[in-house]
Amino acid sequence: MSAVYGILRSCKCLGFIVLFCMTGTVVTRAENSVNSPNEAYLDALQGTWTMEGTLRGNTVRYRADAHRVLQGKFVELHMVDTGPPPQYEADVFIGFDAKANDYIVHWLDRFGAPGARVVGRGERQGQRLLFTFPYADGAFRDTLTWQPNSKSWSLLLESQGGNGTWSTFATYTLIRGASR
After folding, report:
1. CA 20 to 30 Å from 174, out of 16, 66, 91, 139?
2. 3 state SS of 48
3. Which helix or strand (DSSP H or E) is residue 15 part of?
4. Element containing residue 160 per DSSP (H, E)
5. pLDDT per residue rounded down to tens, the chain (180 residues)
């Protein structure tokens, strides 16, 4: 009798484990398919863009392409300048962390690993997303703003001086369509 009870108890335990695993899978799939307003905000960045602006006072132009990667958890923005030969290239990965209710950005560019050590953290207010990068030699902040009427973006990059003041490093406008 105790052997039968042990088997039944094991089966109940096994059944609970199977049910738990199935429930966990269902919850995980449901969470992955939810498109929150914060995720939808990033979706507007997908596509091909002409990115024009100024970098330290000099006119610059990039071709930019953005799409979801890593099972949709990040939007990757690939930028390359249009000059022959290109002088700058970057991959920017932006994702939303629902638990922390913030955005995370990894900016990887042609300058290599030293600049990639710092991860930016961002918060969104309406159509504006502000990221801060706490670099050792001075913080940077990037402000990405969606312009729904024109379906374009603006990007402002600022650097923080030793006295704590912010100055413009670069400004860009992203307009849908390939570079000319």
Report:
1. 139
2. strand
3. helix 2-33
4. strand 152-160
5. 444 444 434 444 434 333 333 334 333 333 343 467 788 889 999 999 999 999 998 999 999 999 999 988 899 999 999 988 888 999 999 999 989 999 999 998 888 777 777 888 999 999 999 999 998 888 999 999 999 999 999 999 999 998 889 999 999 999 998 654
| Rounded-to-integer distance, Cα 7 and Cα 73, Å | 43
C-alpha 153/C-alpha 172 separation (Å) is: 8
The pair of three-digit structure tokens given for residue 31, joined into one six-digit string: 């969470």
CB atoms near residue 95 (< 10 Å): 20
What is the C-alpha to C-alpha distance for residues 25 and 36, in angstroms, rounded to an integer? 20
Positive or negative, the CA dihedral 39, 132, 90, 159 is positive
Give the chain's end-to-end CA distance (angstroms, integer): 82
Tokens of 51: 């990115």
| Distances in whole angstroms, Cα of residue 155 to Cα of each of 85, 128, 168 | 24, 10, 11
Q: How many CB atoms lie within 10 A of CB 48?
A: 14
